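Apologies for my clumsy wording, but could you write out the amino acids of a protein and the C-alpha coordinates describing how it folds?
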Amino acid sequence: MLKQHETDLAVLSSELAFSFLSDAQMAARAIKNVTASPRLNCAILGNQEPHLHFLLIPRGGIGDVNPRKTPWESPLPKTDLSQDVVQKLTHEIRVGIGDQSSRRLRNIY
Protein backbone atom coordinates (compact mmCIF):
# COMPACT_ATOMS: atom_id res chain seq x y z
CA MET A 1 0.00 0.00 0.00
CA LEU A 2 1.31 3.44 -0.90
CA LYS A 3 2.26 5.46 2.20
CA GLN A 4 0.87 8.65 0.66
CA HIS A 5 -2.93 8.56 0.47
CA GLU A 6 -3.94 8.38 -3.19
CA THR A 7 -6.56 6.31 -4.99
CA ASP A 8 -5.29 6.62 -8.58
CA LEU A 9 -1.89 5.92 -10.15
CA ALA A 10 -2.52 8.68 -12.71
CA VAL A 11 -2.29 11.44 -10.09
CA LEU A 12 1.16 10.44 -8.79
CA SER A 13 4.22 12.39 -9.84
CA SER A 14 6.43 10.45 -12.24
CA GLU A 15 9.08 10.15 -9.54
CA LEU A 16 6.67 8.73 -6.94
CA ALA A 17 5.08 6.35 -9.47
CA PHE A 18 8.52 5.06 -10.51
CA SER A 19 9.57 4.58 -6.89
CA PHE A 20 6.28 2.84 -6.01
CA LEU A 21 6.70 0.45 -8.94
CA SER A 22 10.36 -0.11 -8.07
CA ASP A 23 9.27 -1.15 -4.57
CA ALA A 24 6.64 -3.44 -6.11
CA GLN A 25 9.32 -5.01 -8.31
CA MET A 26 11.56 -5.75 -5.31
CA ALA A 27 8.62 -7.29 -3.45
CA ALA A 28 7.67 -9.32 -6.54
CA ARG A 29 11.18 -10.74 -6.87
CA ALA A 30 11.22 -11.74 -3.21
CA ILE A 31 7.76 -13.35 -3.43
CA LYS A 32 8.73 -15.33 -6.55
CA ASN A 33 11.90 -16.55 -4.86
CA VAL A 34 10.16 -17.54 -1.63
CA THR A 35 7.22 -19.27 -3.32
CA ALA A 36 9.23 -20.72 -6.26
CA SER A 37 6.42 -19.58 -8.56
CA PRO A 38 7.24 -19.48 -12.27
CA ARG A 39 5.34 -16.19 -12.65
CA LEU A 40 3.49 -13.54 -10.70
CA ASN A 41 0.30 -11.64 -11.48
CA CYS A 42 0.45 -7.97 -10.55
CA ALA A 43 -2.50 -5.61 -10.10
CA ILE A 44 -2.52 -1.99 -8.99
CA LEU A 45 -5.84 -1.13 -7.42
CA GLY A 46 -7.48 1.69 -5.51
CA ASN A 47 -11.20 1.29 -6.04
CA GLN A 48 -12.68 -1.16 -3.51
CA GLU A 49 -10.07 -0.27 -0.88
CA PRO A 50 -9.83 3.51 -1.42
CA HIS A 51 -6.05 3.64 -1.16
CA LEU A 52 -3.60 2.87 -3.95
CA HIS A 53 -2.07 -0.59 -3.48
CA PHE A 54 -0.76 -3.47 -5.51
CA LEU A 55 -1.50 -7.18 -5.35
CA LEU A 56 1.28 -9.63 -6.15
CA ILE A 57 -0.14 -13.09 -6.74
CA PRO A 58 2.15 -16.10 -7.29
CA ARG A 59 0.97 -18.19 -10.24
CA GLY A 60 1.82 -21.27 -12.24
CA GLY A 61 2.80 -23.63 -9.48
CA ILE A 62 1.32 -26.98 -8.59
CA GLY A 63 -2.39 -26.58 -8.08
CA ASP A 64 -2.84 -23.66 -10.47
CA VAL A 65 -5.86 -25.20 -12.18
CA ASN A 66 -6.53 -22.27 -14.55
CA PRO A 67 -3.12 -20.83 -15.44
CA ARG A 68 -4.53 -18.79 -18.34
CA LYS A 69 -7.29 -17.14 -16.29
CA THR A 70 -7.15 -14.49 -13.61
CA PRO A 71 -6.69 -15.65 -10.02
CA TRP A 72 -10.21 -14.41 -9.28
CA GLU A 73 -11.60 -16.99 -11.71
CA SER A 74 -10.19 -20.00 -9.84
CA PRO A 75 -12.77 -22.71 -9.10
CA LEU A 76 -10.86 -23.76 -5.97
CA PRO A 77 -12.29 -22.76 -2.59
CA LYS A 78 -10.53 -19.90 -0.86
CA THR A 79 -8.68 -20.92 2.29
CA ASP A 80 -6.72 -18.96 4.87
CA LEU A 81 -3.11 -19.79 5.62
CA SER A 82 -2.25 -20.68 9.19
CA GLN A 83 -0.71 -17.90 11.29
CA ASP A 84 2.57 -19.87 11.40
CA VAL A 85 2.74 -20.06 7.61
CA VAL A 86 1.92 -16.35 7.27
CA GLN A 87 4.68 -15.41 9.72
CA LYS A 88 7.22 -17.68 7.99
CA LEU A 89 6.41 -16.33 4.51
CA THR A 90 6.43 -12.73 5.75
CA HIS A 91 9.85 -13.21 7.32
CA GLU A 92 11.29 -14.89 4.21
CA ILE A 93 9.91 -12.18 1.92
CA ARG A 94 11.34 -9.41 4.13
CA VAL A 95 14.73 -11.14 4.10
CA GLY A 96 14.48 -11.46 0.30
CA ILE A 97 13.73 -7.76 -0.08
CA GLY A 98 16.68 -6.92 2.18
CA ASP A 99 18.97 -9.13 0.10
CA GLN A 100 18.08 -7.20 -3.07
CA SER A 101 18.89 -3.74 -1.86
CA SER A 102 20.53 -1.85 0.94
CA ARG A 103 17.55 0.52 1.04
CA ARG A 104 14.24 -0.34 2.55
CA LEU A 105 11.05 -0.04 0.56
CA ARG A 106 10.48 3.70 0.48
CA ASN A 107 6.92 4.19 -0.60
CA ILE A 108 4.93 1.26 0.70
CA TYR A 109 3.84 0.24 4.15
Observations:
- The chain has one domain: 1-58+79-109.
- Strands lie at 39-45, 53-59.
